């Protein structure tokens, strides 16, 4: 297993923590000098907070740990391609490298819809690598939403039976 796969496995562990909380299973770790300095996962539903994405939470933890908003030599590993908000936070925190598992067809801003992370109009750009443990990362999301649809259908059926 190479280095990127090793750290992506940790991000997947974080995604599984989110899933246990009925959150969309997205996980993130930030690495600096081969040390994990922060971990996080999606908490939007738990906190009812639009900005509680895995990347934002993990960036906040890393900044707090380093006592600095600058994460200049850090690498961010995340299971799903960053959205515009997260890509903006990555740029503003000066993260050096972003490695993600699977593309986000609806909101990805690290190559799918656009690439904010390498846009030279900003004062900082990141190296970007995609597709690390892509199948596992994609399956986490596919399985989660499949299970969610099944649960919703079962609830709907129960409500209909209760009204009869």
From TrEMBL:
Q: What is its EC number?
A: 3.5.4.33
Q: Name one Pfam family in it.
A: MafB19-deam
Which residues of the sequence carry a binding annotation for Zn(2+)? 53, 83, 86
Q: Which residues form a coiled coil?
A: none
Q: Which domain of life is it from?
A: Bacteria
Q: How does it assemble?
A: Homodimer.
Q: What is this protein called?
A: tRNA-specific adenosine deaminase
């Amino acid at each position: 297993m190479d280095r990127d796969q090793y750290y992506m496995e940790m991000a997947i562990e974080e995604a599984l923590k989110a899933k246990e909380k009925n959150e969309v299973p997205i996980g993130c770790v930030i690495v600096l000098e081969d040390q994990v300095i922060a971990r996080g996962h999606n908490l939007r539903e738990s906190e009812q907070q639009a900005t509680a994405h895995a990347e934002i939470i993990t960036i906040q933890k890393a900044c707090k740990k380093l006592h600095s908003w600058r994460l200049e030599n850090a690498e961010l590993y995340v299971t799903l391609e960053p959205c515009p908000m997260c890509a903006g936070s990555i740029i503003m925190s000066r993260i050096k490298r972003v490695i993600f598992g699977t593309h986000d067809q609806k909101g990805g801003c690290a190559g799918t819809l656009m690439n904010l992370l390498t846009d030279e109009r900003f004062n900082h750009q990141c190296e970007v690598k995609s597709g690390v443990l892509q199948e596992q990362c994609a399956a986490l999301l596919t399985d989660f939403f499949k299970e969610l649809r099944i649960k919703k259908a079962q609830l709907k059926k129960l409500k209909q039976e209760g009204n009869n």
